[in-house]
């Protein structure tokens, strides 16, 4: 998993997961990226649950933010530290 700078916009992040076979799945948000993965998993497993319904993927799988580690307290602390250092250098 990677968080990169979007080549097109130059200012927005690009969230990317590379599969074992080298295929890359990308999204403009962590959730967009993982939703594509979960849809694919669901398709390959042949499940018939509704993706967007009340029992959709969001309830079955971890959120994209969780999967990229953004819910980890240490990661939150590091991100907040980046924001403070950026403000103090202005």
UniProtKB/TrEMBL annotation:
PROSITE patterns: FYRC (PS51543). GO terms for cellular component: nucleus. Pfam families: FYRC (PF05965). It comes from Erythroxylum novogranatense. Coiled coil: none annotated. This is FYR N-terminal domain-containing protein.
